[in-house]
Automatic annotation (TrEMBL):
<feature type="binding site">
    <location>
        <position position="156"/>
    </location>
    <ligand>
        <name>[4Fe-4S] cluster</name>
    </ligand>
</feature>
<dbReference type="InterPro" id="IPR020558">
    <property type="entry name" value="DiOHA_6PGluconate_deHydtase_CS"/>
</dbReference>
<feature type="binding site">
    <location>
        <position position="223"/>
    </location>
    <ligand>
        <name>[4Fe-4S] cluster</name>
    </ligand>
</feature>
<dbReference type="GO" id="GO:0009255">
    <property type="term" value="P:Entner-Doudoroff pathway through 6-phosphogluconate"/>
</dbReference>
<dbReference type="GO" id="GO:0019521">
    <property type="term" value="P:D-gluconate metabolic process"/>
</dbReference>
<comment type="pathway">
    <text>Carbohydrate metabolism; Entner-Doudoroff pathway.</text>
</comment>
<protein>
    <recommendedName>
        <fullName>Phosphogluconate dehydratase</fullName>
        <ecNumber>4.2.1.12</ecNumber>
    </recommendedName>
</protein>
<dbReference type="GO" id="GO:0046872">
    <property type="term" value="F:metal ion binding"/>
</dbReference>
<dbReference type="InterPro" id="IPR000581">
    <property type="entry name" value="ILV_EDD_N"/>
</dbReference>
<dbReference type="InterPro" id="IPR056740">
    <property type="entry name" value="ILV_EDD_C"/>
</dbReference>
<dbReference type="Pfam" id="PF00920">
    <property type="entry name" value="ILVD_EDD_N"/>
</dbReference>
<keyword id="KW-0004">4Fe-4S</keyword>
<keyword id="KW-0408">Iron</keyword>
<keyword id="KW-0479">Metal-binding</keyword>
<dbReference type="GO" id="GO:0004456">
    <property type="term" value="F:phosphogluconate dehydratase activity"/>
</dbReference>
<keyword id="KW-0119">Carbohydrate metabolism</keyword>
<keyword id="KW-0311">Gluconate utilization</keyword>
Length: 644
């Protein structure tokens, strides 16, 4: 099947835009690669430190400088349900690698925090920055230069993006990601949502709410709704870093263990000493990034990936922005309805056909690039299969021809919507994204007076006091990366949802995040530039009419131009967000973080040598001048600010 014209055009544009950065990145990979095992560069003293505590037979193999060594980088902790199963993975991985003739060492651990625990708490202001902290921890783990391949154990919100960003900064080392899987299904999502709204309305107490939540989050594994954690796992499937169909196999099952062993063996096989060398910096390229965006749109995945995919791409010398998401969303159909975009959870999605079904449907429609490299060493078509055990042996069979449940998963020929779940909004309030896959058409246009809040706590106080029984758009500002680390504002969803159910026309505009909580209420999120970067949300006053038009991509304050231009951004004291719960340690992140559209990142694109930008290497065809659309986002943002 030939590739869809729009997908091809976006991909080509990304390739042109990224050319000097990608070239610099690949050059760095070649410089880092060593002939023979990587530890061959170490002195005898260095090497002796590297295996001093290892078992005798493994130590002998490491001494001989012949067999490959596999790093294990894990985000294990036993507080978080999704990461608790990883306690048992390292021994399984070490045994599988040893049986295949190599050696595996636990190279290092990374932090792993849960947004579900920190929601509405000061600790949530560390969440976004934990991604780059994890990337740095991954770099520390690999910095010993002992390793020829690596397996990465991570699953939740910032953890997988952080691990992948770290892995890409060691892009010469092959990488295999090993998921832990979702917990079994508990309390149904409609019932969970109903109980939360009752609590927000004051109709039930804390004991009833806690009982319902405990029935929802009840076992080892990821939360089963389709937020960032499970979007991560879908993306690792589609971007070829998992073994096929590995994402949504529940923990502590024979199939999960078999996939872990097979993943470990595959890491050994794709090292430079194995059957085929597949460095992660080549597996992740412009086409695999586009495939990730397409799959995110087709499944109604987390809005957090409008930042995380940008940052992942940047780590590989690739430049993408929200225009790419928006253009692709116009041609990618919505194939899945998973909570909060539907009632079903990821276990139902997996049972209906899951990621292998989605990949095949999108490939057959020409919406995914088939000619990419995956950890299998083949094109993406090889990932249209699902794993199972036959007489104790791991095998793969083709994805089902038909969806097992059309209320959860559909083919391209009969999608839930002809367009993807994300839209770009722009206007005099800046640029923002909105997840419309769960927003009913009648709610996609809201024009109402603004009520300005400088925190989600201020919003909740007004809601609990009964002050919001009317049509309005909540402008919750000073929630961007520079201001307070860009926390997710999940607590707003039940309150706004109950007001919408009561018949009021409501919406949300914020420079903060919503992620998987972006549900039935229209929410313009990640507004860029944020207020602390001079963003125009700082000019909004309560009572201003705000137009949030998801269908036409508009986000604007309906204020006379002369009055708007004369307004100044209000000065707000943010000192309370800078200390306590470790926030003072992250001051350097707040000072140096990029905008949401640039990935909310604290690292830069690969440095480019003099002359790399010559001959229109970034943009237009030879002989044509540059234009804004062909300029990298960091330069283009400067142009936009100057025009304003």
């Amino acid at each position: 099947m030939s590739i869809h014209a729009t997908v091809a055009a976006v991909t080509e544009k990304i390739i042109r835009r990224s050319q000097p950065y990608r070239r610099a990145y690949l050059r760095r990979l070649e410089t880092a690669r060593h002939q023979g095992v990587q530890r061959g560069t170490l002195s005898c003293t260095n090497l002796a430190h590297g295996f001093a505590a290892f078992p005798a037979n493994d130590k002998l193999k490491l001494k001989q400088l012949r067999v490959p060594s596999v790093a294990i980088v894990s985000s294990y902790n036993d507080m978080l349900s999704a990461h608790q199963p990883y306690e048992h993975f390292p021994p399984v991985i070490k045994e599988a690698v040893r049986e295949a003739g190599g050696v595996a060492q636990f190279a290092g651990g990374t932090p792993a925090m849960c947004d579900g625990i920190t929601q509405g708490q000061p600790g949530m202001e560390l969440s976004l920055f934990s991604r780059d902290t994890i990337a740095m921890a991954t770099a520390v783990a690999l910095s010993h230069n002992m390793f020829d391949a690596a397996v990465y154990l991570g699953i939740c919100d910032k953890i997988v993006p952080g691990l992948l960003i770290g892995a890409l900064h060691f892009g010469h080392i092959p990488a295999v990601f090993i998921p832990g899987g979702p917990m079994t299904s508990g309390l149904s999502n409609p019932e969970k949502s109903r109980v939360r709204q009752l609590y927000a309305q004051g109709k039930i107490g804390r004991d009833e709410l806690l009982e319902a939540e405990s029935k929802s989050y009840h076992d080892a594994g990821t939360c089963t709704f389709y937020g960032t954690a499970n979007s991560n796992q879908m993306l690792m499937d589609v971007m070829g870093l998992h073994l096929p169909g590995a994402a949504f196999i529940t923990p502590n099952t024979p199939l999960r263990d078999a996939l872990t062993r097979a993943s470990a063996r595959r890491a050994l096989e794709i090292s430079a000493q194995g059957k085929e060398y597949l460095p992660v910096g080549h597996v992740i390229d412009e086409k695999s990034i586009v495939n990730g965006i397409v799959a995110l749109l087709a499944t109604g995945g987390s809005t957090n990936h409008t930042m995380h995919l940008v940052a992942i791409a940047k780590a590989a010398g690739i430049v993408i922005d929200w225009d790419d998401f928006n253009v692709l969303s116009g041609v990618v159909p919505l194939l899945a309805r998973i909570y909060p975009n539907g009632d079903a959870d990821v276990n139902y999605f997996h049972s209906a056909g899951g990621t292998p079904f989605v990949i095949r449907e999108l490939l057959d429609a020409g919406l995914l690039h088939e000619d990419v490299t995956t950890i299998l060493g083949h094109g993406l078509r090889a990932h249209c299969v699902e794993p199972l055990l036959e007489e104790g042996k791991l095998v793969w069979k083709p994805a089902p021809e038909k969806s097992g449940d059309l209320s959860v998963l559909r083919p391209v020929a009969e999608p839930f919507s002809p367009e993807g779940g994300l839209r770009l909004l722009s206007g005099n309030l800046g640029r923002a994204v909105i997840k419309i896959s769960a927003v009913k058409p009648q709610h996609r246009l809201v024009e109402a007076p603004a009520i300005v809040f400088n925190s989600q706590d201020a919003f909740m106080r007004a809601f609990e006091a009964g002050e919001l029984q009317r049509d309005f758009i909540a402008v919750v500002r000073l929630q961007g990366p520079r201001a307070n680390g860009m926390p997710e504002l999940h607590s707003l969803t039940p309150a706004l949802g109950s007001l919408q159910d009561a018949g009021y026309h409501v919406g949300l505009v914020t420079d903060g995040r919503m992620s998987g909580a972006s549900g039935k209420v229209p929410a313009a999120i990640h507004v860029s530039p944020e207020v602390l970067a001079g963003g125009p949300l700082g000019k909004v006053r309560s009572g201003d009419t705000i137009r949030l038009d998801a269908e036409n991509g508009l986000l604007e304050a309906v204020v006379p131009l002369e009055e708007w231009n004369a307004r100044k951004v209000e000065a707000i004291d943010l000192s309370a967000n800078q200390v306590g719960m470790g926030r003072e340690l992250f001051a350097m992140f707040r000072r140096n973080v990029s905008s949401a559209e640039e990935g909310g990142a604290t690292f830069d694109l690969p440095p480019v040598l003099p002359g790399e930008f010559e001959n229109n290497s970034l943009g237009a065809d030879a002989g044509e001048p540059f234009n804004d659309e062909d300029t990298p986002f960091n330069d283009r943002d400067t142009l936009i600010v100057q025009k304003r």
